[in-house]
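Exercise 3.2. Students should predict the tertiary structure of the chain below and write it as structure tokens, then compare their answer with the key that follows.

Predict this chain's 3D structure.
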Amino acid sequence: MLLNCSACSSRYLVDPHVFRQGGRKVRCAKCAHVWFQEPPFDAPESGASPSLEPRAIPKGSNLPSVQNASTGGRNFLGWATLLLFIAGGLAIGFLARQQAITAWPPIERLYSAVGLAPELVGAGLEIRSVTSGRMLEGDSQWLVIKGEILNASRQVLDVPRLSGTLQNSAGQTVHGWFFVANEMRLLPGEIVVFKTRVKDPAPTADSVVVGFSRRD
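Answer key:
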């Protein structure tokens, strides 16, 4: 049954079953106009059940469509799960970026492209004045390497683990090892001296390279 408000022309679709006992006062939900609505001629008799056959809403009706609440809940849960999955993946990718680069170096370009490249190991620190010399100790020959680490930044920095590499004349690595400096934290402008040595270095060793290394 279609009701029309004479004051604002709003239209309402109602079940004629509500008028089975005669006319009644109705109020417009939009303008609050009140009028007495007579029952339709074909209103169901008292005690009769309204027809359960679905009918299309008349064109122009101002009644809103009703969304299935359970479907909306499932959609929300699905989107929430997807967003959590994406956020978790991004967090893992950010925290484990160094491990990912170590396992597959080409991926570093992708991290750099999105501004997530890991900070350079030893950023703000400078290794300088590296010298090396050989000495005999008993029946063994030792290669002694010395140098300095300068904190060239304006903040306190931790000193990473150091790595030493012996290379031949072709630039190939013939021996590598790790060591630590005497001080693990430097103030701005502070310098620490390091010393390391290698027992019986390879005869083909032609040069030594000292750098910073991440701790695994």
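Discussion points: The longest helix spans residues 69-95. Residues 84-118 form one domain.
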